[in-house]
Task: structure prediction
Amino acid sequence: MDRTRRGGTDWAGWLRRWDAQQEGYVDRREARFSAMLDVAARLLPASFVALDLACGPGSMSQRLLARFPEARVLAVDIDPVMLEVGRGALGSGGGRLRWIEADLASSEWLSLLGGARVDAAFSSTALHWLEPAALTRLYRDLSRVLPPGGLFLNGDHLPFGPELPTFAGLSERALAEQWSDSEFAARGIETAEQWWEAFAADPAAAPLLAKRKARFAGKRRPETRLDLDAHVAALRDAGFREAGTIWQELSNRVLLAVR
Ligand SMILES: C[S@@+](CC[C@H](N)C(=O)[O-])C[C@H]1O[C@@H](n2cnc3c(N)ncnc32)[C@H](O)[C@@H]1O
Result:
């Protein structure tokens, strides 16, 4: 039986559908991924070990493995649903992909690495889920795990700071429009809520959703996002020697930090 259809569930289909709805939230998502991969191609050796932080169902991991045949990826996420979709769709990536269930808001993920060497960390559309104190701790932990010269690449909406009110307003208005239900409908793209509703009807969903509910108990998304300057300052405090934007469309950016 096709592994990606295990148990009657089309896991690869759920991953494709995930990517399609994420494109509604992140303009030029594929170009953003490519910008991150291009940096890795220029700055890392052919064989490297990467973390995919808050990997979801593995969109970043999948692209890393496809572009770098000698790379290995450790994909970390708190959500048992996301991890199961990823495992079902991508499996172990031919022995090069390991899935790790951990909460990045604590340092538990470090102990689950089992002393693995890590050369770079990637993250896409995810770290805004962490409160500032948790993000600061994550950056410190990353700085401990990465060797000198190790890379951190984060693709996310990283807002403009208060010193650029016109830029911030422009970007916020563009996002409010892009993320409205009417805009999703006009573009024929499913929203994240619609993806979750559809997944809930899959025969495999019920036990996974129960585990998910328990894992997220008491958690909520922070109300505000740290601005770019706060990310850069936190990374430098954590021991990264360089940090800055290498790709951008308004607040949609790729931040590169070098340990
Ligand atoms: C919008 S999704 C992005 C997933 C994927 N990186 C992508 O680009 O498609 C955000 C991800 O962050 C994960 N996440 C949120 N809080 C987390 C935490 N405290 N620890 C680990 N993962 C977390 C969620 O489970 C989800 O998979």
In short: The chain is about 45% helix and 15% strand.
